[in-house]
Design a protein that fits this description.
Elements (H helix, E strand, L loop, with lengths): L1 H26 L2 H18 L9 H19 L22 H12 L3 H12 L4 H8 L3 H18 L6
Keywords: DNA-binding, Sigma factor, Transcription, Transcription regulation
Pfam family, one: Sigma70_r4_2
Protein name: SigE family RNA polymerase sigma factor
Length: about 160
């Protein structure tokens, strides 16, 4: 039991900040991202004893994270909250100016949750269409259409003079 707990603690310590960055891109709020990651790791811990292959652990954890985000978005727990112009200084650096990043993050927050999830998994996590489909429990065609619609929505939300 202690070996299993130690293995989980090591995994959490090494991967929680990466998952937090993914969660932030999904929801646009550092506090909510923290909650999503915490919930995802609690769910992962509950299944930890059943996980045979730890080589696919990142994909499994990401899948839990995305499903948690989508479930909460559907239920409307945070439906009325909107991200503000204030951002946490602890964010990881991204190429481009701060203004460009804020415009893009604001636009990403206005994209529908499933489209946002597809965009984050495909372009932030650099997952294949097939892996994204597994994470979202849908077909590859659905991933392609959600990604295309999400990119189209971003194009309409971001002024062309910004980039």
């Amino acid at each position: 039991m202690q070996d299993r707990d130690a293995a989980f603690a090591d995994y959490f310590a090494s991967r929680s900040s990466t998952m937090r960055g993914t969660a932030y891109l999904l929801c646009g709020d550092w506090h909510r991202a923290e909650d999503l990651v915490q919930t995802a790791f609690v769910k992962l811990y509950r299944a930890w004893h059943r996980i045979a292959g730890h080589e696919t652990l990142d994909a499994y954890t990401r899948q839990i994270l995305v499903r948690t985000f989508l479930d909460e978005s559907r239920r409307g727990f945070f439906h009325r909250e909107r991200p503000t112009a204030e951002h946490d200084d602890r964010s990881e650096p991204v190429a481009g100016s701060v203004e460009d990043r804020m415009v893009l993050l604001g636009a990403l927050a206005d994209v529908a949750p499933r489209q946002r999830a597809a965009l984050v998994l495909r372009y932030w996590e650099d997952m294949s269409v097939e892996d994204t489909a597994k994470a979202l429990k849908c077909t590859a065609g659905t991933v392609k259409s959600q990604t295309a619609r999400g990119l189209d929505a971003l194009r309409h939300l971001v002024p062309t003079s910004t980039f």
